[in-house]
Design goal:
Layout (H helix, E strand, L loop, with lengths): L1 E4 L1 H7 L15 E9 L2 E8 L5 E5 L6 H15 L4 H11 L3 E4 L3 H30 L2 H24 L16
Parallel strand pairs: 1-2, 1-5
Antiparallel strand pairs: 2-3, 3-4
Amino acid sequence: MYIQCTQKLLNQLGRSYDKLPVLPEPIYCWHADSFEVGGAPYVIMVNDGLGIEEFLMFDPSQDFETQVHKEMGFDMKRDGFSDTELVSYVKQAGALTFGPTGGRSYVTRLNSHIRNAKSFTTQMQEFMDEVQSVDPLEELAIRFDAVMDRLVQEEAKSTAKPKKKPRVPAKGKIS
């Protein structure tokens, strides 16, 4: 699998560019770059042949190739590919090799994907921060109080003394 990436990503991976005599088929070529949101590193890869993207949270302490294969496996399964098709793709693509980006149009397309990924990631982080800021015990106490108030009101209605019926005078007697 040929990854045409920025020098920034290459430095983060601690790799150098590989020399290939001939480029592989576009389906096995990817353009990649990295970015950060909230201090967390991400890598986005765009396939040269299909235009599909792989988006992964990058852990510099883990093997990059393993992370890429894991994310591709997850995405391909989600998209309906079988394990056999995944294994076949990885086998035909070969080991990860790295080269410089292939031109301005690829970099422009990659930057567009990065802008979208940054926006999505930022929105998700804001959502997670909001969800985590809610104190579950406080939320539970509020819900409990509301249920108890409703039960007390229902109990009060059911035990209230019935209204007295107006007295109707006996037949023939008018007061």
